[in-house]
Amino acid sequence: MWKVMLKEIKELLRDRKTLFFMVALPILVFPLLIGVVMFFAGKAVDKAENKVLDYAVVGAQYAPALVEDLAASDLFNQVMIDEGEDIAAFVKSEQADFVLVIPDNFSEDALQSGQIELSLYLNDAGLNMVRRRLDKIVDVYAERSQQKAFALLELDESQQQALIEPIVIKKVDVADKRENWGEKIGGMIPYFIFMLCLQGAMIPATDLGAGEKERGTLETLLISPIERHKLVLGKFLTIALAGATSALITVSSMAVWGLVISQGMAIKMVSEFMSAINAIDFVLMFLMLVPVVAIFSAVLLSLSIYARSFKEAQGYMTPLVFAVIVPVMLAMLPGVELKGGWAWVPLTNVALAIKELIKGTMDYFQLFAIFSSTAVIAGALLYFCVYWFNKEKVLFR
């Protein structure tokens, strides 16, 4: 078994394509792609912030000072709109980025005019800075109107604050930082790790089954004095090691690059969060992944053994990604906790357990049941894989 495993690992290490997907892709390509996306996203935001917006005003006579402030801004360019024209159609036809409709009760005397409602027509489907820019100008008038009303009512500062916010709810969060952040991002971490383990195991699994058939080396391997189950176990361990290694390299790479490109405050926040998780929890997370990787490896090897060719094996394995996504995403849904029936749903229970370990709220006794049930499933799938490999009609179909 170990000789078969070492032989398969050596062949994988000689394959440049496999090494690229297992090592180079996680270390260089993923961070590069993230960097490119962030670069173009930043460019899009900068472009939106600096773009001069065309606008039109309806009811300008009711607020001449406000209209003058809009016209004085370098970020706005006024266009004319005919009286009675359909405002929504005017904006949809892209004759203006937005149209501001000022009511006839516009006034800086809030006590007399009451609440004033400005209507803003815009296409808000894309990235724009219309509301942010407009608020900077309109808020000046709103605050001025507010202060004028307070002065007329002769209210002191505490009374003004009470009038603005008559009732305030003070939140006292009893969760510590680790639990708070763990709840926010703890569900995403198992999702990424599971996907990385699966993707990292796919290429070697395809090569060790269907690839052997295409190269004609499977027959030579079968006539060797090695028992069939040891051949399967050697290939199985190789695939599992490849999946775990790919996931470990990818997560480590993303963490390192994240710290490199982050600002000092982000580094401090990440370091505080990571330091709150003790070494035992990290070890338990890794142990919970062992049967998961075993499940992936057994299923992938079974599909690869059944396939006639490399291409056919890839066709069988692709839908497996969606079969894994669904139970893992269930762990990210609101209200889904490691209680009741969810503790027995395969993959979902492991994802929830990892989330609880990250939060620091794990009931460690539950880990035995989750690990045991997942290990039983992995063992059953491995037994099926050995059974599958012993059938000649499967190997030479």
From TrEMBL:
Membrane topology: Multi-pass membrane protein
Gene Ontology CC terms, in alphabetical order: membrane
Keywords: Membrane, Transmembrane, Transmembrane helix
Gene3D superfamilies per record: abc type-2 transporter like domain
Main location: membrane
Family matches, as InterPro entries: ABC2_TM
Domain ABC-2 type transporter transmembrane: start-end pairs: 17-386
UniProt GO MF annotations: ABC-type transporter activity
Pfam families from the UniProt entry: ABC2_membrane_3 (PF12698)
Transmembrane regions listed in the UniProt entry: 20-41, 236-261, 282-307, 313-333, 364-389
Location within or outside the cell: Membrane
PANTHER family reported in the protein's UniProt record: ABC TRANSPORTER PERMEASE (PTHR43471), ABC TRANSPORTER PERMEASE PROTEIN NATB (PTHR43471:SF3)
Name of the featured protein: Sodium ABC transporter permease
Organism: Alteromonas alba
Lineage: Bacteria, Pseudomonadati, Pseudomonadota, Gammaproteobacteria, Alteromonadales
